[in-house]
Write a structure and sequence with these properties.
Elements lengths: L30 E5 L5 E5 L3 H4 L5 E5 L1 E3 L3 E5 L5 E11 L3 H6 L3 E9 L8 E8 L2 E12 L5 E7 L6 H8 E2 L14 H4 L7 E4 L11 H9 L3 E7 L22 E6 H13 L3 E4 L1 H18 L6 E2 L14 H14 L4 E6 L14 E5 L6 H10 L9 H11 L10 E4 L7
Parallel strand pairs: 1-19, 3-13, 3-15, 4-12, 15-18, 16-17
Antiparallel strand pairs: 1-2, 5-6, 5-11, 6-7, 7-10, 8-9, 9-10, 13-14, 14-17, 18-19
Helix pairs in contact: 6-8, 7-8
């Protein structure tokens, strides 16, 4: 069974010196390890990507924008309390939360919690010449050691978006083992980032430049965007021996009607679907299951962790499912659809939409490595061998790993679906 897969089968040695702590000066100059459908590997540069893709691809990117989620407050005693924004609670909508004036509530992780037993934390801020005070009050404890935190500030003209921009810092990944720097404000954003909400970047997109996009359009690529706000759960290690014991994190995503229509056209015209990053993969591969749930009369727009492996959904048709989503949107006069997914993509997963994957090199024993393995050996329910072949090759040839590292262009060994 899928849930019996051992996470130890996805381990590999990753020396600290192979983890890129800073990006290259030019985004598209990074190395690109190409894994072809026949399993052959070759070493390229990311700037070559447009020439390496199949003709007329549909390319899907995640346009989420990383927020300054790390806020450092100081008590009168000098104790430093870090409040890490995870997701909005009141209001729960990201757009509305950032538009709030005077008050909002967020789900947060708190660093040095033992020094904040009660009372308010205060921070003096200045936004566009306006001086005011930000207050943080801890409310109830939530699941996963998180807390509800109420933020208030005494200025009707200042939005929470402005508060975060001034009060917070970019939350670079913990495995970089350094504090965020001013350069990370730009480096840790894709050039197409737009919708605020992530606490981690969709890092496969960090390599794209305007020149790469211009070249892709010259190759008749159809470039589309979705929004999935990456949560801190993306860094959550798998602590159980088998993946069945790992609770997959839930993330919110939004897709436009035009993207669903483009996916249907791609299926009809046999245009390859290229997902930029694992967050785009998780969103795209969740859509057919969301459509199947709608067809079955489910009201909740959510894909659960193991739904893709439930025999109930094994027989549905992908085109019919996507069309059901469009019908659902038509009845409610929606131009975009917001839902959530906790989908687990592991060896044995049935792929329905993604034909080609652009991604970075991921941490050992991570759910992202499970996804890569499932993609490369999509006809196998075992851990497969191609991912290990790729990672061994990258380690042997001094590739840079993780968020600020080099990239892969991956084709499944069985060829395009």
């Amino acid at each position: 069974m899928i849930q019996d897969i051992k996470i130890a089968d996805f381990d590999y040695p990753l020396p600290d010196e192979r983890i890129a702590t800073h990006p290259l000066s030019r985004r598209d100059s990074c190395r690109l390890l190409l894994s072809r459908p026949d399993g052959r590997l070759s070493h390229r540069r990311f700037s070559e990507l447009p020439n390496l893709l199949p003709p007329s691809p549909l390319i899907v990117c995640n346009n989420t924008r990383v927020i300054n989620a790390r806020m450092a407050f100081y008590k009168s005693s000098g104790a430093r309390i870090e409040v890490f924004l995870l997701e909005p609670l009141d209001p729960s909508d990201y757009v509305l939360a950032f538009q709030c004036r005077r008050r909002c509530v967020w789900k947060c992780m708190i660093g040095n919690l033992k020094r904040w037993k009660e009372g308010q934390l205060l921070m003096n801020l200045t936004v566009e010449g306006r001086e005011f005070q930000l207050s943080a009050k801890r409310l109830e404890t939530l699941d996963g050691n998180a807390h509800a935190v109420e933020f208030t500030w005494n200025d009707d003209e200042v939005t929470f978006a402005s508060v975060v921009d001034v009060a917070g810092r970019i939350p670079i990944p913990p495995y970089l083992r350094r504090e965020s720097e001013d350069a990370d404000t730009d480096d840790y954003q894709t050039v197409y980032s737009e919708i605020k909400g992530s606490v981690a970047a969709p890092t496969a997109g960090l390599h794209f430049t305007d020149d790469v996009f211009d070249s892709l359009r010259g190759h008749n690529a159809d470039i589309r965007y979705l929004t999935l706000h990456v949560g801190a759960g993306t860094f959550q290690p798998v602590k159980s021996d088998t993946i069945g014991g790992h609770p997959m994190h839930t993330e919110t995503f939004t897709v436009e009607r035009s993207l669903i229509e483009a996916l249907l056209d791609a299926i009809t015209l046999h245009r390859p679907v290229v997902a930029v990053g694992t967050t785009s993969v998780r969103t795209l591969e969740s859509l057919p299951y969301l459509g199947a749930a709608v067809m079955n009369g489910r009201d909740e727009l959510k894909v659960s962790q193991w739904e893709a492996y439930d025999g109930t959904f094994a027989g549905f048709d992908t085109v019919t499912s996507l069309q059901a989503l469009l019908t659902y949107m038509d009845k409610r006069q929606l131009n975009s659809l917001t839902a959530s997914t906790a989908i687990m993509i592991a060896p044995g997963f049935r792929w329905r939409l993604v034909d080609v994957l652009v991604t970075n090199f991921h941490q050992p024993q991570s759910t992202l490595l499970l996804l890569v393995s499932a993609f490369l050996d999509r006809n196998s329910s075992s851990s497969g061998t191609q991912w290990r072949h790729i990672y061994n090759e990258a380690l042997k040839n001094d590739y840079r790993f993780l968020s600020y590292g080099d990239a892969c262009l991956l084709f499944p060994k069985t060829g395009l679906s």
